[in-house]
Amino acid sequence: xxxxxxxxxxxxxxxxxxxxxxxxxxxxxxxxxxxxxxxxxxxxxxxxxxxxxxxxxxxxxxxxxxxxxxxxxxxxxxxxxxxxxxxxxxxxxxxxxxxxxxxxxxxxxxxxxxxxxxxxxxxxxxxxxxxxxxxxxxxxxxxxxxxxxxxxxxxxxxxxxxxxxxxxxxxxxxxxxxxxxxxxxxxxxxxxxxxxxxxxxxxxxxxxxxxxxxxxxxxxxxxxxxxxxxxxxxxxxxxxxxxxxxxxxxxxxxxxxxxxxxxxxxxxxxxxxxxxxxxxxxxxxxxxxxxxxxxxxxxxxxxxxxxxxxxxxxxxxxxxxxxxxxxxxxxxxxxxxxxxxxxxxxxxxxxxxxxxxxxxxxxxxxxxxxxxxxxxxxxxxxxxxxxxxxxxxxxxxxxxxxxxxxxxxxxxxxxxxxxxxxxxxxxxxxxxxxxxxxxxxxxxxxxxxxxxxxxxxxxxxxxxxxxxx
Length: 469
Description:
Elements: H1 4-11, E1 18-22, E2 29-34, H2 38-57, H3 59-76, H4 78-89, H5 98-114, E3 120-125, E4 128-136, E5 139-143, H6 149-162, E6 166-170, H7 176-187, E7 195-197, H8 202-209, E8 216-220, H9 223-232, E9 239-243, E10 248-252, H10 258-270, E11 280-286, H11 290-303, H12 322-337, E12 341-344, E13 360-363, H13 370-373, E14 380-386, H14 389-397, E15 401-402, E16 404-408, H15 412-419, E17 426-429, E18 444-445, E19 448-449, H16 454-460, E20 462-468
Parallel strand pairs: 5-6, 5-8, 6-7, 8-9, 10-11, 10-16, 11-14, 13-14, 16-17
Antiparallel strand pairs: 1-2, 3-4, 4-20, 9-19, 12-13, 15-18
Active site: 243
InterPro entries: Ald_DH/histidinol_DH, Ald_DH_C, Ald_DH_CS_CYS, Ald_DH_CS_GLU, Ald_DH_N, Aldehyde_DH_dom, LUC3-like
GO molecular function, one term: oxidoreductase activity, acting on the aldehyde or oxo group of donors, NAD or NADP as acceptor
C-alpha cells in the first residue's frame, strides 16, 4: 500500500522550486506544491485537447471500467489520503470529516461511472422520431475550493471524464497537495493528458476563466469570483456550472421535538467546522421554543471535541486559513458589540493552535446584523426569533443567495408545505446539507446555476445533440 509520505513525494516538489503548504492545525510545513504558470496552463489545455478524441472513442463502458478501478485505488489508499487531507485542510479524521470525504471521493467516482445515460426519445409519431444524444463537450476547466478539496474536485472531474471529456483542474492555493494526491491516484489509470492539475495562483484561475480553448468551466467558490468568471468566459462562450456561496436558512416549526432533531441540527450547522457552502448559516426558531433550542445547541457546542484533526477523539478542527479566521472573528465581535448574546464560545481557542475558534452559539440577534446577513463560513450560528411562520419564510427568502435551506418538524406534511415556499436549490426536512450522488444539487439566485450529481450532472458536462427523422 502506498504511504502518505510516498504520495507526498509523488506530488510535491523541492523547497527550492515550490510553495510551502502549512498544516492547518499547527502551521508547520507539510510539503511544497508546484508553482505553475499561465504558460503551464496553456500546455495542459493543449495536451487535453490532443488527448480528448481518443479518450472519447473508448466509449462509456471502458471509461466506466477505468473510473471504477480508480475508485478501488482511492479505497486502497484511503487512510493515507485522509491523513494528508486532515493535515492540509484541518478537518479531523473522524466524524463527517476527512475519512468521510475520501470515502465520498470513491463513492462519487463509482456513481459517475455506473449511472446510465441513454439517448432520450422526445417525440415519436408514425415515421417521425426525435432522439437526444449526449456527446462530450471537449475540454473542461475545473476550479476547486479549499473546504472540501478532494470531494468537490471529484464532483467536477468524474462526470466530465465519464462523458468523454478531458479535464484541467486548478485547486485552491490553500489545499493543492490534497488535489494533487487525488489526481495522482486517478492518473495511474488514465492516458496522458486526460487529467492535469495546475497548481497556481489567482492569475492562473483567471486565465482558466478566460481561456479560449476550454469548452466548459466548473467552479465552486465565492459569489464574487463566480461573477468574474461569468464576465471572463463571455469571449469563449464556455458552458458554466457555478456552485457559489450560500447563507442557508433553517426554520424550526412550532411544536417540534427538539431533542429528536438536536444531533442532525448540530451537524447541519457545524459540519467541517462550519466551513461548508451548504451548511445551515441562520436558524429561525419560534418564540415558544427559542430558549430550548439555544441551550440544546450550546450544550453540544461546549462539549463537542475540538482540536488537532489527527487526534482520533476530535470531530471539530481549525479554520483552514488566516483570512477565514479573521472573517469569523470579526463577525462574532460585531454581533457582541451590537448587543447579541454569546451563549457558547465567542472567542479564539489558541490552546489548540493558531487558527482554532470556539464552537459558538449567538442568541438575541436578528436580520440586519452582519452575522445574519453575511456568510460566516465557520463554527458560529446565529439563532433568530420569530412568532409567525409566514414571517420566518419571508426573512429566510430575503437573502440574495439560495443554495440550501431546511425545515424542521415531526409534522412532515406541514414541513413540506413550508419547504415548497423556501427559495433554494435544495430544501431538506429534518436534516441539512445531506447530499446523495444520485440526486441533483445546485443553487439559485446568487448561489450560482447548473446542477451536479446523477443524470443531471452527466448532462451538464455534455453537448446535447438532437437526431431527428
